[in-house]
């Protein structure tokens, strides 16, 4: 019987849970992956603005999971946006932790139309802004802004998956990261 690996994701969003499950299945193919989400507060605004606020949101979610749940790994993803010198973009920070270490990763940027970013500065969440612009419903639990703006060649899940894949490096090669 395969050994089991318990993963707690700091969100009940199925996109985030599926991304975490797929990464741990990739890195631990001989183990049974028990991956589920829990409600974990980010303690940042619902729509984080800036890299620091976004990263802190993901860190806070993982910390909450560590304090309230027992697992082999804890995972959180937090999407944010920022006005960079070259234009506005959305991105995500990911945090993976176990009892020995923690790794922080970041996704690539998705350029955002200025008018959509400006709507975020007025307190709107990106998912709601995208639903309004594209006449969709609850896109944040589906392909997200990424899916809509790339004609579904990339999705919110594929972006989280890539960031999580990179953030796993310290767990796969722990001696190099000590």
Automatic annotation (TrEMBL):
One of its GO terms (molecular function) is hydrolase activity. InterPro entries: ITPase-like_fam, Non_canon_purine_NTPase, NTPase/PRRC1, YjjX_NTPase. Keywords: Hydrolase, Magnesium, Manganese, Metal-binding, Nucleotide metabolism, Nucleotide-binding. Its EC number is 3.6.1.73. Residues 10-172 form the Non-canonical purine NTP phosphatase/PRRC1 domain. Binds 1 divalent metal cation per subunit; can use either Mg(2+) or Mn(2+). Its cofactor is Mn(2+); Mg(2+). Signal peptide: none annotated. The keyword Manganese applies. Coiled coil: none annotated. SUPFAM superfamilies: ITPase-like. It holds the Pfam family NTPase_I-T. It catalyses: ITP + H2O = IDP + phosphate + H(+); XTP + H2O = XDP + phosphate + H(+). Mg(2+) binds at residue 70. Phosphatase that hydrolyzes non-canonical purine nucleotides such as XTP and ITP to their respective diphosphate derivatives. Probably excludes non-canonical purines from DNA/RNA precursor pool, thus preventing their incorporation into DNA/RNA and avoiding chromosomal lesions. Belongs to the YjjX NTPase family. Homodimer. This is Inosine/xanthosine triphosphatase. It comes from Pseudoalteromonas haloplanktis (Alteromonas haloplanktis).
């Amino acid at each position: 019987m395969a050994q089991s690996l318990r993963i707690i994701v700091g969100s009940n969003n199925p996109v985030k849970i599926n991304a975490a499950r797929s990464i741990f299945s990739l890195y631990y193919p001989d183990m049974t992956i028990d991956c589920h989400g829990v409600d974990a507060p980010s303690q940042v605004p619902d729509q984080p603005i800036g890299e620091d606020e976004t990263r802190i949101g993901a860190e806070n979610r993982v910390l909450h999971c560590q304090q309230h749940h027992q697992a082999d790994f804890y995972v959180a993803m937090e999407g944010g946006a920022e006005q960079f010198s070259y234009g506005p973009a959305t991105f995500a920070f990911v945090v993976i932790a176990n009892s020995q270490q923690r790794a922080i990763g970041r996704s690539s940027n998705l350029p955002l139309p200025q008018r959509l970013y400006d709507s975020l500065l007025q307190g709107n969440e990106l998912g709601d802004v995208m639903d309004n612009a594209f006449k969709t419903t609850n896109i944040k639990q589906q392909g997200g802004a990424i899916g809509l703006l790339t004609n579904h060649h990339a999705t919110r899940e594929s972006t989280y998956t890539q960031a999580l894949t990179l953030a796993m490096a310290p767990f796969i090669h722990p001696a190099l990261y000590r």
